[in-house]
Amino acid sequence: ELIEKIAIKKDGYIETYLVNETAENVWFDQFRVMSTGPIIVQETHYDPWGLEIKELGYQYGGIKVNPYLYNGKEFFTENDINVYDYGARMYDPTIGRWSVVDPHAERYSSLSGYSAFANNPINVIDPDGRDIIPVHGTWSNILTWGNLGGITKASNNLFKDNNPGVSYSWSGDNFSGARTNAAIGLIDHVRTQMKSEDFNGSITLVGHSHGGNLSIEALNMMAEMDEFNDVNLNLLTINTPVRDDYQLSEKASGRVNHVNVYDEKDPVQSNGGNSTLNKLFGVFSRGVRTGQRLGQQLGSGELGEAGRRFDNARQNISVDNPQGVGGDFHNSHNRTDDWLNKTKTENK
């Protein structure tokens, strides 16, 4: 039996040849090239909430245990505490709750102040324990984001920003006044994000539907504020109704890196305007929101023709596999596979 062991010291590839260099016939029996990987010293499995499934795990003997586990956070086991340190507060994976009330709980009135990850740990993360920067649209909430992984990849491709930000929640009312109030709140939300240890000098707002328009309104205000002068401002709008009253100002356009994603068949986007008739009579009725001025009755809101492309955006990306009535329309924020490849091409 002949055995030759070779240690591979760096990544790459090898070509293996079996050659008889003698004048005699030689028969090789059971010739094999075997690869032995590095020793696994620790393997940890979790349920979605970060609770360790010990039956599936493995720890190599004599090796110091790595305490940085779920979401890369340090796990404390002293005195059977069993909590993760998220910096601002502690997280208990057994019950999926924070140890103290979220300091920004007033922004998420539909959630308990102790709720972690908006009760959706698969799609929502909390990098520093303060908040959970996508902006949802009309008649929606933060749970609409079902593919934040795809959104993060797109943001990285387009803006070189892959630091998961904080999701912003607002009323979702279909009125310009509600969007203005939400834009003011969004600016405060950005200020909080900038205080995070994870802040990388860039703010990327990702707005779905009218969430894109309130993001535009917020960025127009931020462009006039000295506190944001040294911040890189990015904007990704998705399925956003394009209207004359929601455009980046001249000053904001000079600073904001804006990319727009649209679906040419989306019936919601193309009807997200505000016609004169609707302003006077509130002809459109949907949902349970209460109108806030004359002509806007229970459930009413804005309706009118809107565009799909922003003339001043760096790029307008048309999705593949567009979805109209009867399809999965107005959902391009979750159908990122329909346009993610185009973000790679854009940023070459």
From TrEMBL:
Full protein name = RHS repeat-associated protein
Q: What Gene Ontology terms for biological process does this UniProt record contain?
A: lipid metabolic process
Quick one: where's region Disordered?
Answer: 317-348
Classification from the root reads: Bacteria, Pseudomonadati, Bacteroidota, Cytophagia, Cytophagales
Superkingdom field: Bacteria
Q: Organism, per UniProt?
A: Algoriphagus ratkowskyi
Specify the Fungal lipase-type domain's residue ranges: 186-268
Where is there biased composition of kind Basic and acidic residues? Answer: 330-348
Q: Entry's InterPro entries?
A: AB_hydrolase_fold, Fungal_lipase-type, Rhs_assc_core, T6SS_VgrG/RHS
Q: Name one Pfam family in it.
A: Lipase_3
